[in-house]
UniProtKB/TrEMBL annotation:
It is found in: Golgi apparatus membrane; Secreted. Disulfide bonds join C136-C286. One of its GO terms (cellular component) is Golgi membrane. Belongs to the glycosyltransferase 29 family. Catalyzes the transfer of a sialic acid from a CMP-linked sialic acid donor onto a terminal alpha-2,3-, alpha-2,6-, or alpha-2,8-linked sialic acid of an N-linked glycan protein acceptor through alpha-2,8-linkages. Therefore, participates in polysialic acid synthesis on various sialylated N-acetyllactosaminyl oligosaccharides, including NCAM1 N-glycans, FETUB N-glycans and AHSG. It is noteworthy that alpha-2,3-linked sialic acid is apparently a better acceptor than alpha-2,6-linked sialic acid. Pfam families: Glyco_transf_29. The lineage of its organism: Eukaryota, Metazoa, Chordata, Craniata, Vertebrata. It comes from Denticeps clupeoides. One of its GO terms (molecular function) is alpha-N-acetylneuraminate alpha-2,8-sialyltransferase activity. Residues 1-24 form the signal peptide. One of its GO terms (biological process) is N-glycan processing. Keywords: Disulfide bond, Glycoprotein, Glycosyltransferase, Golgi apparatus, Membrane, Secreted, Signal, Signal-anchor, Transferase, Transmembrane, Transmembrane helix. It is a single-pass type II membrane protein. Gene3D superfamilies: Glycosyl transferase family 29. This is CMP-N-acetylneuraminate-poly-alpha-2,8-sialyltransferase.
């Protein structure tokens, strides 16, 4: 009888201990979830901006700017919940084979067959695998760069990202010459290089590609039906010319993942612009990000006209609902991050060291 009572007591104590531990684990999990939710709420509040899109937005002041490492790390971790730039920056050769059928990113009802030419140019591994940089420059193409004298400052960064194969040599004093990662929309081939139909256009294109040196050339090849023709022309041209370029083609999930991140943080974009996309990717491998050439308004704060691109006469209706991007809203978001120390947004002249 005494033995039975002793066993009963031990059994009761064991059950109580199990119940206690279960409650502790539950409390710990709830606390962790609450902390993560709180962090995300703080981040969202830091990113949320007023939705107005007037061109009278004052430029950000760079005087006294300092990086906020804690916020940089928080943003990096939050973005990693949606995408990993190291992986999503490009599909790799082992993930596809010639003849594979894939759906277009923005036109899911249509499909594309992977050509042997495209497959030959896919990288074996991600071009950003195990890369990390102290300072990075993301260079947009706004005419705000003209007469800025920012070329030397841009070139001083450890890693430089440029958009849409913009010309550099003729504007070196304002935009610099170095490049480590260059994007190119397929439409550039038709709009700037005449579809490579003329010898003069082909020669001009070759010289521009040679100037990339060891830079990664990043082409969004799987966006919409029609763009694949330009991509195939470029790919065939690169192989025929024997150009040794480091090619990259973004993963099929990248654009939607980037948009999802910004929508979650209360930035109601339709489609991320190349500049916003590159900033989002850069958070993965850059400790300090500097933005240049971001100014989505037809005039500066003094009323002087500002070209859409520093290198051509192309026009863009920034406030049109038909436009694919909401650039003024993106700018205000980046400006808010600038004042928090998450990035540095330069829209004025650069001072010589």
């Amino acid at each position: 009888m005494r033995l039975t009572r002793k066993r009963w007591t031990i059994c009761t104590i064991s059950i109580l201990l199990i119940v206690y531990k279960t409650k502790e684990i539950t409390r710990s999990d709830e606390h962790q979830e609450a902390k993560l939710a709180g962090d995300r709420e703080v981040l969202a509040s830091r990113l949320s901006v007023n939705g107005t899109e007037k061109s009278s937005v004052p430029p950000p002041s760079t005087e006294g700017w300092r990086v906020n490492p804690a916020l940089v790390l928080m943003i990096r971790k939050d973005i990693l919940r949606f995408l990993d730039a190291e992986r999503d920056v490009s599909v790799v050769k082992s993930s596809l084979k010639p003849g594979d059928t894939i759906h277009y990113v923005l036109d899911r009802h249509r499909t594309l067959n992977i050509s042997r030419t495209l497959h030959n140019l896919l990288p074996e591994v991600s071009p950003l695998k195990n890369r990390r940089f102290k300072t990075c420059a993301v260079v947009g193409n706004s005419g705000i760069l003209l007469n800025s004298g920012c070329g030397r400052e841009i070139d001083s960064h450890d890693f430089i990202i440029r958009c849409n194969l913009a010309p550099l040599k003729e504007f070196a004093e304002d935009v610099g010459l170095r490049s480590d990662f260059t994007t190119m929309n397929p439409s550039v081939i038709h709009r700037v290089y005449g579809g490579l139909q003329k010898e003069s256009d082909r020669e001009k294109f070759v010289h521009r590609l040679i100037a990339l040196n060891d830079s990664v050339l990043w082409i969004p090849a799987f966006m919409v039906k029609g763009g694949e023709k330009h991509v195939e022309v470029v790919n065939n041209f690169i192989l025929k010319q024997g150009l040794h370029l480091r090619m990259a083609y973004p993963s099929l999930r990248l654009f939607h993942a980037v948009r999802g991140y910004w929508l979650t943080n209360k930035v109601n974009i339709k489609r991320p612009s190349t500049g916003l996309l590159m900033y989002t990717l850069a958070t993965r491998f850059c400790d300090e990000i500097h933005l240049y050439g971001f100014w989505p308004f037809p005039r500066d704060t003094q009323g002087n006209p500002v070209k859409y691109h520093y290198y051509d006469m192309l026009k863009y209706r920034y406030l049109s609902n038909a436009a694919p991007h909401r650039m003024p809203l993106e700018f205000k978001t980046l400006k808010a991050l600038h004042y928090k120390g998450a990035l540095k947004l330069t829209t004025s002249k650069c001072t010589r060291p």
